[in-house]
């Protein structure tokens, strides 16, 4: 079946198909492809040779529209019926749990796990390092970080435990980046285990699938199927069902080894898969950014090196008897050798197995010693641990090393000159071994079987073999190249090895094995002078310890600008560079000093730290800061004073915080606390933001500092403290926060309200009641605000509020108290109001009476529960008129038809009283309100009577507005005609009331009145915001038909009208709609979307123009041009950029161009374009 037909089937299964899909399906069904799809009864559909179709128990004699529709339904029914629970993933999940329950073994290359085998199973594994990840910053973030420091901390420099980090960003896809052996794959395995365990225990949840890209053959779907069948061979999922489950979000994909994809074709296929299934949670890993690309994944997390404390803890747990001796030998080399879990484990193995517990002098020596344990028959005493039993090999052990070198060399050759392979077919491996062992007596299959049984190879499938780790493959490739080196010409060495990125790691390992100085310097100088200067500098630092001085001297002897030389010396990461870099700390140029500090920071020795400490005393604040960060990366506490100083500097605060965290977590909170107490305004704001962000990172003792900040004179600091306390959410935090209910800042009070639950006001009740009884209007308003926003009330508070609503002299306070009683949805309020209405109402004020206030609140609450209370008030012959009219109005507003008969009787009673008594005004009001209430309840034949009242200009404005509102609910021609006539009423409120109702019906004749209302002002001349808001809402309901009239108002002399017209246009058109910009000739927001801005630069400017801009741009703008250049740079421009580093004096060039060169080299997988051209035929 073709991919196109498969896609159509998938879209049909998901209900996302089009008419074109159905036509294509019908056409396919006419041919062999369509018939073959269903001939085995798939989807319960069978198509015979004569095109007769059997779908379940239905038969069609031809492929017509009805048959196709039935097929569509059958596909959808089949897809819908396949849920994970029905398919049954339990066996698969159990297999995952059984296979990966000892996840820590995936840090190692053999079954040897040292002392871990003796530990109790429930004890924490020494391999549970507590690995951390840190977000990889995007260059564009640097421009926004100073303007938005919270974003910088959250998005740019977030540091998280690895599992927490990858889970946090999985939904939007995340790329986990790390050195070989840093624990990326093991992190995926741990997440695989946790997710599978959870799904088994809960009987639901996402199904985790590990997609190992090193095993790529044809597609991602094939890899998913292979992994599923590996763990449950009986699991039967066709591709259509699988893709349906994918789109429905049932799977979590853990995609390991982006850098191990075998070809560009595979990379393109994977990128398409990621786009097609963008809603499927996916976590990707890659060795380093650039190798294999990033597939456009925006969120990247970088594995952090093990800290010295983590390394020491592992060594003490793994080789407890010899731990101190091992640590003593390693000294300051521990950081160099043990930065990843895999290397640390290998280090422990080598130390344990070496006869005199001696440590190698470099990384290559560790690999050499580690692999020799398998090759040297003299270490037979260690075979019990390492080779899973004392079993006699089939072949001679002396053949193993050359065999592994040969296989590694063959695997370094891929589809193209720049590609390599991580696996090889067994037949090809046997052919290669036959070639190099043509005169040996041992069959090559025995040699290969021994390597698979006892050494560092493993089967990846029945016919594919691979090294147990890519690092081991690279080591044997290095051994292979070491053997070839004396016979390689300079041109061959440059073209076939130095210039290809795939050989960089093996060459680096090889140099550490080269004993001859001349040979080592030859490699370094060829790389540095003829291939790439950065590569040469790196290789200089990989030479043997006793050769590094000569190698680094060759870097220092280069005739290049000092700024470039500093970068090159830093790239060596060698102790030998310190003597050249140290004097530069005395430079008068800040850029030279800062670059020197960064270069020294790359040198992983105590001597480097001692040199860097000198810069901590520099007179330049920025230099002290940069030096402190580098010293902190070594965990040295001498950086803390400078970092504490940096905490008080806005632009350095968050990076200083991370640096302090790297030295000693226990010092972070106290130092932030000191900043909060003693620093200036901006530093205090940063400190409280940091304390907030650290809440989720396991820090304690934060609450006392949040309480201090809650009383800061700065409202922004208080807000941040309140926000943090609300997020803590425990009883202690909330009790602290509750004390801020009287704060002057509304946002602080909002956080208080957000944090208090309905029953949490008990401990504030006395304070609130006292506040409501005070003479301070501000205090009263704060108390009312708390009650309103928390929706929490007691009977005592309700009574106090009612008293304020009745007696307070301040209209705004009275109104707020009434509003609180209206909004709070609690029967307590209803009970208080009911009781008040039965009490004496003889006490009145100039504002109102207590009964009037109570009934007004019931009117606006519009609750059915209030109906008996309202009827009782209405029947009370001693009740005043306003209470009765409000009660009638409320009965109509509530909308319960059960009161209709009561209201009809009330209407008759009012008519009778009008005729029999002289109290015309009172009963006329009761009559009118009852008539309107009945109209709102849908009683027929009342429209004419209501229209007469409306059109009687002697009626009050409030009654006439009520008439319009009522007519709006009566669907008769007479009612609508009255509403249309009201558009010309002399009173704006009447006109607007009619217009608002007609607008809901789409009546465009309401537009002039609505536009008129945009300029309405209240009695003191300010904008009547409620009127203009209603008018804008109605105009939006009318939609695009208003735009022409609104455009005219953009030139109005009234600024209020102009503002509201613009707002209406914006809401009608939408923020991003082009029509909005057609109607509003206003300048676009300066906060352009970054990606759009970069695209614009790329499209509008040439490479040369962007380079010139890069040279002279200021620090706020330079990143834009660098980012744009990264988008368009091509391999043939590497030489030009390298030349630029030799000729330019621009700081921007030395800051950004090395990264540009590295980007394109990673993309094309070679260093030098001209050399690479010599490979191409």
Automatic annotation (TrEMBL):
Q: Which InterPro entries match?
A: ARM-like (IPR011989), ARM-type_fold (IPR016024), EAD10 (IPR045429), NACHT_NTPase (IPR007111), P-loop_NTPase (IPR027417), PBS_lyase_HEAT (IPR004155)
SUPFAM superfamilies in the record, alphabetically? ARM repeat, P-loop containing nucleoside triphosphate hydrolases
Gene3D superfamilies, alphabetized: Leucine-rich Repeat Variant, P-loop containing nucleotide triphosphate hydrolases
Residues covered by the NACHT domain: 173-321
Instruction: Report keywords, A-Z.
Output: Antenna complex, Lyase, Phycobilisome
Residue ranges constituting the Effector-associated domain according to the UniProt record: 2-75
Glycoprotein found in the keyword field: no
One Pfam family this chain carries?
EAD10
Gene Ontology CC: phycobilisome
Q: Where, if anywhere, are coiled coils annotated?
A: none
> So which residues are the signal peptide here?
none
Please list the GO terms describing molecular function.
Answer: lyase activity; oxidoreductase activity
Q: Under which name does UniProt file this protein?
A: PBS lyase
